[in-house]
Amino acid sequence: MGSQPPASRAALEPLATLDPAELAGVPTSSPLTVRAAALSADLLYLGTGGGKLLLFSLLDPSTPEFLRLLPIGATLPVSAILPLPSVARLLVLADGLLLLADPLLSRPVRRLGSLRNVAAVAARRGDSADPASASCSIAVSVGKKLLRVDLTLQDGDELDVQTREVAIVEGVKTLAWVDDSVFVATATGYSLFSSTTGQGVDIFTLPESSGHPRVKPLSGGDEVMLLVDNVGVVVDTFGQPVGSSLVFNTTPDCIAEVYPYVIVTGNSKVDVYRRRNGAYLQTIPVARTGQGVLIVASDDDGIGTELVVIATAYKVFCYHKVSAVEQIKASLRRKNYKEAISLLEEFESDGEISEDMISFVHAQLGFLLLFDLRFEDAVNHFLLSETMQPSEIFPFIMPDPNRWSDLVPRKRYWGLHPPPKPLEEVIDDGLITIQQALFLKKAGVDTVVDEDFLSNPPSRADLLELAIRNIIRYLCASRMKDLSSPEMEGVDTFLMYLYRALDLVDDMEKLASSQNSCVVDELESLLDDSGHLRTLAFLYGSKGMCSKALSIWRILARNYSAGLWKDLSENGSSGTSVDKRSGEEIAAIEAANILKTSSDEDLVLEHLGWVADIDQELAIAVLTSEMRESQLSPEKVVAAIDAEKVVIHQRYLQWLIEDQSCDDPHYHTSYALSLAKSVIEAVRMESKYRGKDNREIDSDAQKIYLLREKLQLFLQASDLYDPEDILDVIAESELWLEKAILYRKMGQENIVLQILALKLEDSEAAEQYCAEIGRDDAYIQLLGLYLDPQNGKEPMFTAAVRLLHNHGESLDPMQVLERLSADMPLQLASDTILRMLRARVHHHRQGQIVHNLSRATNLDARLTRLEERSRHVQLTDESICDSCRARLGTKLFVMYPDDSVVCYRCYRNQQGDSSSGRGRSSRKDVIFKQSWLVSR
Questions:
Q1: Are 750 and 773 in contact (CB under 8 A)?
Q2: Is the model's pLDDT at 47 over the cut of 60?
Q3: Would you state the pLDDT for residue 591?
Q4: Which helix (H) or strand (E) holds 316?
């Protein structure tokens, strides 16, 4: 037996109390004692111990109306009333007899059959759900028999009654019929019988000391509660336990259900439990007078019913189910937030509350918690509300009136919290309430203020920071929602306000630099006055106000370089320890990011200079950016680049030529001149500082090598520059390979050979150049340069011998001999010259042989042609044309080399065609005949 805990909430509330005898006008000398009660729609039926039925109307439950009293027999005390709306009848069990009455008690009752000593009766659950069926079934226990009675409503309001035996069972106390299963309770236990086949099965046996068994069908039509002492075991239609059992505080005398509650009476009290988990909710105080047990009744269809009737012997109390909203509201009035949240979860799981109301309650909870200074919990509930609008928070951030005042919805909450006001005022009022509660607590008065606040009062600064951080959390989550443009502007602008209030610089800059809906007019002066220029610059940039953003970045760069502001790299706020940048560099980077997308030439060129002063690579990236819609004018860019920024000038021209395919000779020449000057300057600086260590020398050499390589590649690849201008610049330098390339472009072959052979002494390159020229005299000219280099230089005999060895066979020996120097050692050139002469004689004789063979072939062909022309052909009268097959006779004819003969007419018809009469083509199918050259 469980002990009764204190009531936690009111699930049922009283509506009316009625005195049946007084309303029915029964004299006090013959009082009415209520023994049974039943509800059907808006009608209340009461059965008395004196054999009377009373009918009351509950159209207005607060003022029940007496309708009729029907006597059924003074010696027939009523023990059960079952409304049967599908057959328009009321079934009454009185003193073991089954009686039928009409729903309005307008006619006398009639007995149902000849049944006597009826122990229990139950209507089939679900028959009343469809009144149009005009039939219903009831289970009746008479003696040891379990009967099924089928009632069908016929024309003339007559009933057709069919009775058949279902099973044999003894000692039935109560029945319940759900679906096809008839549950039977006896003093020894519970059984289950099929209403169609009569097959039965025992569910479980009751202990000997067990109380009165009871069976209660539950709403939904597929569950039944079986009572074992004070435990209600819930089973399905097959008798298998489902869900959790309900443990009552007392052994119930009577059970009713108003979904989602179960109401039981016992020990002169009425308790209310939650059906899902059996949690105790409420005890209804009822002053019982007279004898008998308390009776509780509700409509058999527990879903949708709101009323429950509790009857004593002489009084009837009508109770109404308190709606989910009202129960939650009552908890909130007591500021019992845990209970309210528990109720909300409970009603949500039971489907007793709509999704919109759930969102509404979460919002209401949030506002109450907000005014109670529990900001984190408040925002948690705001986030759970699907219908709450972010604009409802705006009045807590900025006092009315403001730009967004009209956006704040005028929602009708339950009036449990004050009107919205700025957070500072909310906190001040909350602190005053806490102080008052502290005084009341010392005086022994209980308050609703949180005990944590009373034991450890918070400071105003801590509360304000906590409030702002949680409002920030809510606004950040709101940014993910699909909001209107004005609402989004308010969210982002207020978010920036709150970031600035806590000096959350990183968050401010992140918001300002990303896509946002901040209103610049509202934040300009705020950020400027507070010194958050970087955030303001980011904001200008994200809004396309590039000129203002760049001006700020320029000011910041100047302040960082002048030491007016603390460098960002000192406090590690930008970058990692591996890649830290100064504030000046960061300003240049952000400015460059804006300039890369801008097509405003004047704006780009205005700020290009100071960006280049900080980082030339950034300036180059700005000029060569492909992100802008239209490229800058090369003429203006080249004119704007500082003459001292050689790298920028070169890189821009290189991009212009290589990536943009610029074919303007002026830019090609400018690029080549700039590269040439850089090379000359690098060589000069390297020779000036010869005293460097090896590492510096290697670095300079590498730099010069890369510069010269770039210059050489460009001079070879481009044909649009002016080589004479380049030569004027490098004329006095030692850039011989570059000079060779330029002279080659100008067609100065002799000078190119001189440079390659004498200045660079690159024999292989010189011979390759001669091969490109394609004339033998180029090799002779090169040989002359090797043998007579002039200017006091010794002859290059080794190179000359190499040249003769590689190309001597194709040279004219006389020209070679003329070029040979008298000072050249004979042993160096003898073998080469001898091989050259032998090859020359071999080539001469080979030519003679080929010449004579050609003459012989020509003579052979002429002889063959002569023989063909001198052939004699004899034709007879039987000779026919190989084309048209006509006799030739004395006709003119033509003979082809394949000996085919055609008449002259066919020849004229085929004139221009090289095919003979036999289809052989004299052009494609050449006929070879032996001649004297072949035969001999």
A1: no
A2: yes
A3: 94
A4: strand 316-321
